[in-house]
Automatic annotation (TrEMBL):
Organism this protein belongs to: Cryptolaemus montrouzieri
Protein name, UniProt field: PH domain-containing protein
Length: 81
């Protein structure tokens, strides 16, 4: 039996029911997005700082809340030299 006292006919039925409940709980999120990013906040970043940081950053990862991938910055750096 599961938490709701349902009876299962097989182990497979139990697993399917548990996964179904897990997925429903996982995506049952009624919170609203609250990403209030003001592009004018913070200090200016120089071209030299970006050129220095991109070679050591991991490819395919997003560096922060701006969502700009390192790969994009590397292409930008190559095209502006």
């Amino acid at each position: 039996m599961d938490k709701s006292e349902n009876i299962f006919t097989s182990t497979e039925d139990k697993q399917l029911k548990e996964w179904s409940q897990y997925i429903q709980n996982l995506f049952n999120d009624d919170r609203t997005a609250s990403h209030n990013i003001n592009l004018n906040d913070g200090i200016d970043i120089t071209k030299a700082e970006v050129e220095h940081a991109t070679p050591v950053a991991k490819s395919g990862k997003s560096p922060g809340p701006d969502g700009i991938y390192v790969d994009v910055l590397e292409v930008f750096n190559e095209n502006t030299r």
